[in-house]
Amino acid sequence: MFFSRTPMTFVLVTFMLATSSAAFADTLDINLRDSSAQIKYSASMGTDTLGKSELHLGSLYADKDNFLIDFGLLVQDQIGVNSPDITFGMGIKAVVARANANDASAVAIGALLGVKPLPDPRLNIVGQVYASPTILSFGETTRFIETALRVEYEIIPQALAYIGYRTTRFDFKNNLSSAKMDDGLTIGLRMMF
User: Fold this and answer.
1) CA-to-CA distance for 114 and 83, rounded, in angstroms?
2) pLDDT tens digit string along 38-62?
């Protein structure tokens, strides 16, 4: 794959594509840890009877052997009028990656759950999981799993900071162990436009 040779080029291209079009101006999410950086741009598709829909384009860079690009759709909304502090969402995304010197690709389905545990509406706890079984994994990839848990705090209405834990891994046909691309604590900032 081209990006396996020049991963920083794809991080820059992802950022430029996301920020160059006014049609996609909605949310920019950047999170970091000592050994990786992730950037994600989300564009709101509006609200309908199915909930609030958003498209996203993101990239994760850990090192030259661990790099990922994903593109997906997420639909989310409050569970009901009686539970305005609980948000649930479901999504799908396509993933293309270089994981421990292996080319990887998959289509993953996922879920998101957000809870505001306190009367303070600025605090939020969000958990999400995306998984791709063998039937939706391609080439040498047999499985993709991404999990994340974060605690968010709204600093101002257009920006929030968070701390979280993320694990991203692939399984391959040609080896017995998983290729963990990323695993550990992250700190991040999400800005709404």
Assistant:
1) 11
2) 999 999 887 666 568 999 999 999 8
